[in-house]
Amino acid sequence: MADKQNHRSRVGRSGEDLAAAYLVSEAGHAILSRNWRTGHLELDIVSMAADGIHFVEVKSRVFPMEAEPQESVDASKRRKMVSAAIKWLKKNGIDDAECSFDVVSVVFKGDEYRIDYFPQAFIPIIDSYNINR
Q1: CATH number assigned to the domain comprising residue 11
Q2: Over the Cα atoms of the chain, what is R_g?
């Protein structure tokens, strides 16, 4: 059981490292935060690009898998990302910024990997979130 958990942690960490490198080298982002936590909420990557701040969820899997990694970013995960993003913005004193919610999918197959970047994977309706939390 511990070996399986360690393997999942290594896959997740490797995926996040590759995603961050991809965002910098291929998408022109600057990394502002990684693995930022507040309470039970976490943001994998927060980056800045010419079009604003990006809150990025990274999903990593090992081939073969039942579904594409990005499909696991469900409504619950999206709500948590938005809540964490609001807290990140408040903590950093940012009250007026264009924000995007992105997903990076990393699939490992042996020594090879595939990265898929989904900018603006979803657009939240902020009115449905309690911004004053």
Answers
A1: 3.40.1350.10
A2: 15
